[in-house]
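Usage

Read records sequentially. Each one opens with the input sequence:
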Amino acid sequence: MLEVKLYFAYTSPYSYLAYAPARDLERTHRVQVRFIPYGVNIRRVYGPLDHADADRRKVRYLYLDARRIANERGLIIYPPRKIFSCRLAFYGGLFAAQHGRFHEYSQPLFERFWKQELDVENSDAIDALLAEIGLKPAEFARYVDSNARMDLDKCFAEADGDKIFGVPTFVVEGEPFWGEDRIEWVIKKLDSMSLRRP
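and closes with the structure output:
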């Protein structure tokens, strides 16, 4: 099975929009999608949002497009009220993945965050979600205090090796495809490699 990488962030609306189509690739093609957390410094990418009106307009437009796409798919995206750190949520995703529960964790996290029902910086909220899917918050706390940062740093280092600059980015045999709207090109590449399931 060919590995397809998807660099993502829970706080990226376009990562949310790429999430289900990425999972569908495993149904339509002989591939395994590996979801890899990657943090984007919003201020570095889009400028000092607290001061530059032009930058705020750009971000507002990006959310407008995201909401248009989401509406077509029956999803809800409410723009967040602030710039959130995704680190704790990433730790939760890595912990869930180690226990074979990545999608059980990530699907509701994406949905609830973008409905403004879950704060990804709130440890109680992350603990509650982990408990909901049958994982133990006490074990998660030990993971956060021990290996979580090292595991996330490895993800960021892999992203650097793949020359990732934004999310969502698919990587197929070293070739990057940035943006949820590049999924059709990913599919074409996989088809050209004769990986479509019969």
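Summary fields computed downstream for this record:
- The chain has a mean pLDDT of 93.
- Residues 2-192 form a domain with the Glutaredoxin fold (CATH 3.40.30.10).
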